[in-house]
């Protein structure tokens, strides 16, 4: 009698035992396949998240040893930035510089209550002022990568731009602005970082419009996404 015949006779005689073994093997196979599927899905999700958010870090001054500007915002030199961005493991970078400016020919979007959130004196000084964020590329800005902001018209800021700006759709609507519209800005004289007050105005062109909603209630109007502005570094 051959090996195959002996095996078949054993299986047919021990039907219950055979069914139990088959059930155990089936369960083990199912568990293993499920584990492989979960690992594959997890790896794919991790790669997708890493592609979207990109692992990164922020380079800044140590405020204990180098407070930087009068407000303590700090300044990193171009030499330091170049040293880091040229590292083999660094694929992209965002150079960022903030400035507080007055909006000359447009109005900021007020809080739902209708005001700025400031007291009378602060409102007189900063009532129509906001912080603009100068970047070499807006597409890599954290809020865009995370999906908090979404470009809905036009294009992003690039390193080759000069005097261009991105604005929120509600700010554009409130001021009857569109792609190609011009906004006049001037350095705010009450800003503590403005050590050499300038009365010069600069005109910037809207090249992109974005949407987005604050994740929590704003205390001051400048905290509203509607009053968030991104410009180039020119």
Describe the SSE topology.
Blueprint: H1 3-13, H2 15-53, H3 78-85, E1 96-103, H4 120-126, E2 129-135, H5 142-146, E3 150-154, E4 164-168, H6 169-174, E5 182-187, E6 201-211, E7 229-231
Parallel strand pairs: 2-7, 4-6
Antiparallel strand pairs: 1-2, 1-5, 3-6, 4-7, 5-6
Structural account:
This protein has 234 residues and is α+β, with helices and mostly antiparallel strands. The model has no long low-confidence stretch (mean pLDDT 83). It is built from six helices and seven strands. It has a six-stranded mixed beta barrel. It is elongated. The relative contact order is 0.14.
Mean pLDDT: 83
Strand pairing plus helix content: what structural class?
alpha+beta
Number of strands: 7
Coarse shape: elongated
Instruction: Please state the CA-atom Rg, rounded to the nearest Å.
Output: 29 Å
Residues in helix, %: 25-40%
Specify the biggest β-sheet.
6 strands, mixed, barrel
Spans where pLDDT lies below 50 across 5 or more residues: none
Question: How many discrete domains?
Answer: 2
The secondary-structure element order is HHHEHEHEEHEEE
Q: Separation of termini? A: 91 Å
Which range does the strand content fall in? 15-25%
Largest beta sheet: strand ordering: 1-2-7-4-6-5
How would you classify the quaternary structure? Answer: single chain
Q: What is the number of helices?
A: 6
């Amino acid at each position: 009698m051959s090996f195959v015949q002996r095996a078949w006779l054993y299986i047919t005689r021990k039907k219950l035992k055979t069914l139990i073994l088959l059930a155990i093997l089936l369960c083990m196979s199912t568990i293993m396949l499920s584990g492989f599927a979960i690992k594959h899905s997890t790896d794919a999700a991790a790669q997708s998240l890493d592609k979207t958010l990109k692992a990164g870090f922020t380079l800044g001054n140590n405020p204990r040893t180098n407070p930087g500007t009068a407000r303590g915002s700090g300044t990193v030199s171009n030499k330091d930035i170049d040293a880091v961005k040229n590292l083999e493991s660094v694929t992209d970078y965002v150079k960022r510089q903030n400035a507080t400016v007055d909006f000359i020919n447009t109005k900021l979007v007020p809080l739902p209550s209708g005001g700025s959130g400031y007291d009378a004196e602060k409102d007189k000084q900063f009532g129509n002022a906001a912080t603009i964020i100068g970047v070499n590329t807006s597409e890599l800005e954290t809020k865009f990568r995370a999906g908090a902001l979404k470009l809905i018209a036009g294009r992003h800021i690039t390193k080759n731009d000069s005097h261009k700006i991105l604005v929120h759709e509600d700010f554009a609507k409130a001021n009857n602005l569109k792609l190609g519209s011009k906004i006049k800005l001037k350095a705010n004289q009450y800003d503590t970082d403005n050590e050499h007050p300038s009365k010069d105005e600069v005109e910037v062109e809207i090249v992109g419009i974005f949407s987005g909603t604050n994740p929590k209630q704003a205390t001051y109007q400048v905290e509203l996404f509607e009053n968030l502005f991104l410009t180039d570094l020119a």
